[in-house]
Design a protein that fits this description.
heterodimer; A: 469 residues; alpha+beta; Rieske Iron-sulfur Protein; Naphthalene 1,2-dioxygenase Alpha Subunit, Chain A, domain 1; 2 domains; eight-stranded antiparallel sheet; globular; disordered N terminus; B: 176 residues; six-stranded mixed sheet; 4 helices
């Protein structure tokens, strides 16, 4: 499943000397008391260290396999503030490079996506193969006479590139654990999104890119575990599309959970179609019910009830999605108070074309810049950030203690399991991971709190039954 | 463009009427007269505002096309749902209200192969202000089909092309 970068490319990516961790990190949060300092959203020193200690060594989402079907297909995206080219190789592997010419530093590709046989810098015409190698330049003989060795001046590669069931990730740190290790047992839950029927997923209807003036952690928190806001924030959208309020998840005696593992988290109940219902399209609900029995055979009854249920999830640090609404997004940081939101719609490859189209439009109507749900989220995200510009406001603490005592240590489910999806257990787990990374000089100093228990075979599901001819 | 030179200009009175209608439409949006705006829309409306991608000129896929990413790709049902949200007292992001201005210009009105339908090109400037410092500026070009039926003109098709590929706003809480 993995497509690891060959080790020889790593030295071309010079690593930063690890900065000294900030001295006040432990003052920023108290997990026992559910306390979080507002400084994490506004302090530019914290942000600068996040770029190094979170983003330059975590696995960051780059692309979906379906965006790069052919050799030479590429897209440009970012890993935090680093712009990168992600390109399909002739052998089917995917490589990623800093999107900058190593000669004088100009941006290399100005396209969002396309197909290329080479990348040519606009400045002096240096030409690079899709494998990143420097192929040629004007006046090559002068460089030869200068003793320049072209093989030493290829594009700077992202240190590690790997994929999990269609999602391609990159990591700038050659010493980071493998993607499989990084995702760990959270893959048990990711399979609900990525592996319902063994035929995989694809991206449609994207990317749609917009700017929100908020700290990147606020939307990540929102998706990792905050169903609590939906009842109030999204009342107008629910009434507009459903004719009634958001279901009172916190009052209902439904079986629901917060689960987290290595800083990733998923909140969910088991109503199968609760999220999908907010699209107001019964064909999508019918589709989910129609595939549920097969999903149950593949992933078990429990996970088959998660495929479109009231739920949301984030993968540390900045990738999120909503099962059922099928919006998939990355919150790209652009300074402590600003993000670029990149969104796509993710669908089962095997879904009928009509169902895919309904999802593309449904996600657009609900969770996109024009979406009736997202409109109210954006306001919350921005002002939960901007209030902290006030010097004294920024010194105050926030509450993050909801669901203390809700842990289910004996649960058979993977990860840290808490009962009741109205909870802040996943927020606390996200910040536990954040703190561990911010305090670590390198990966060897990151404590292993959530050892994976599931064997690799747990993610290899039986092949779908082939219908008799 | 060649396509434009082949177009036949609509009669002066029709052109004038449709131009006035575009101004009225802008005023309805600026004053949040959502139902009156919706009443200008034909039952078979296709209201489309594609997302814009940066692709090289040689890339046949182009910057946008049907079926790709979009901000609006709506029928009357979706437009009605959006209007229904604007009207909810719990639409928190609209209260206190956003102040809107739509400036319409570059209006061209042409006949089409259907005697009751007119192709109308226009440009817009949309400026939105919220609270104290939230100001969003968006400019774009529109390509409409307005249909004459029972003495009224109804908007049957609208394509909205904005200049931004990265939308520099957190939302689009209006129509264009």
């Amino acid at each position: 499943m993995n497509q690891e970068c060959s080790g020889e490319c790593s030295p071309r990516l010079r690593q930063p000397g690890a900065s000294e961790p900030l001295p006040f990190l432990d003052d920023l949060m108290d997990f026992e008391r559910g306390r979080l300092s507002r400084r994490i959203y506004w302090d530019s020193r914290i942000y600068q260290q996040e770029l190094e200690k979170i983003f330059a060594r975590s696995w960051l989402f780059l692309a979906h396999d379906s965006q790069l079907p052919k050799a030479g297909d590429f897209l440009t995206t970012s890993m935090a503030e680093d712009n990168v080219i992600v390109v399909r190789q002739k052998d089917g592997a995917v490589k990623a490079f800093l999107n900058t010419c190593p000669h004088r530093g100009n941006r290399l590709s100005f396209s969002d996506a396309g197909n290329a046989r080479s990348f040519i810098c606009n400045y002096h015409g240096w030409s690079f193969g899709i494998d990143g190698a420097l192929r040629g330049m004007a006046g090559k003989e002068l460089f030869d006479a200068s003793g320049m060795r072209p093989q030493e001046h290829g594009l700077h590669p992202v240190a590690q590139v790997a994929s999990y069931k269609g999602l391609i990730f990159g990591n700038m740190d050659p010493t980071a654990p493998s993607l499989d290790e990084y995702l760990g047992d959270f893959r048990y839950y990711l399979d609900v999104l990525l592996d319902m029927d063994g035929q995989g997923t694809e991206f449609i209807g994207g990317p749609v890119k917009s700017v929100i003036n908020c700290n990147w952690k606020i939307p990540t928190e929102n998706f990792i575990g905050d169903i609590y806001h939906a009842l109030w924030t999204h009342d107008s959208a629910a009434k507009a599309i459903l004719g009634g309020s958001v279901s009172e998840v916190y009052k209902e005696d439904n079986e629901s959970y917060h689960v987290n593992h290595k800083g990733h988290g998923w909140e969910f109940n088991l109503d199968t179609v609760g999220n999908a219902a907010t699209l107001g399209d019964k064909e999508i609900r019918k589709y989910l019910y129609s595939i549920q029995p097969e999903v149950a055979k593949r992933l078990g009854e429990f996970r088959s009830k998660m495929i479109g249920s009231i739920s949301s999830a984030s993968v540390f640090p900045n990738m999120s999605f909503l099962p059922g609404q099928n919006t998939f997004r990355v919150w790209q940081p652009r300074g402590p108070g600003k993000i670029e939101l990149h969104t796509w719609t993710i669908v089962n490859k095997s879904a009928p074309a009509d169902i895919k189209e309904r999802w593309r439009k449904g996600a657009m109507l609900t969770f996109s810049p024009s979406g009736i749900f997202e409109m109210d989220d954006g306001e919350n995200f921005e002002f939960s950030t901007r209030t902290n510009a006030g010097f004294m406001t920024g010194q105050q603490d926030l509450y993050m203690g909801l669901g203390a005592g809700s842990a289910l240590p004996d649960s058979a489910l993977p990860g840290n399991v808490h009962h009741n999806q109205v909870n802040e257990a996943n927020h606390r787990a996200f910040y536990r991971r954040w703190l561990d990374l911010m305090k670590a000089r390198d990966w060897t100093e990151v404590p292993e709190r959530d050892a994976s228990r599931l064997p690799a075979s747990a993610f290899n599901h039986p092949a779908p039954e082939v219908a008799a001819p | 463009m060649n396509a434009a030179t082949e177009l036949v200009c609509a009669p002066e009175t029709t052109a004038r009427r449709l131009e006035q209608l575009l101004y009225r439409e802008a005023r309805l949006l600026d004053t949040e007269c959502w139902d009156a705006w919706l009443a200008l829309v034909a039952p078979d409306i296709h209201y489309w505002m594609p997302a814009v991608e940066n692709r090289r000129r040689s890339d046949k896929l182009g910057a946008w096309e049907p079926g790709r990413g979009a901000y609006f790709d709506d029928s009357l049902r979706e437009l009605s749902i959006r209007v229904a949200r604007f009207k909810q007292p719990s639409a928190w992001a609209e209260d206190p209200p956003t102040r809107h201005v739509h400036v319409i210009s570059n209006v061209e009105v042409y006949c089409t192969e259907h005697p009751d339908e007119y192709r109308v090109y226009s440009n817009f400037v949309n400026y939105r202000s919220r609270g104290e410092a939230d100001n969003d500026l968006l400019l774009g070009r529109r390509e409409d089909i307005w249909r004459h039926a029972s003495g009224e003109f109804l908007l049957a098709r609208r394509k909205v092309l904005i200049t931004q590929s990265l939308l520099l706003s957190k939302n689009l809480n209006t129509f264009f």
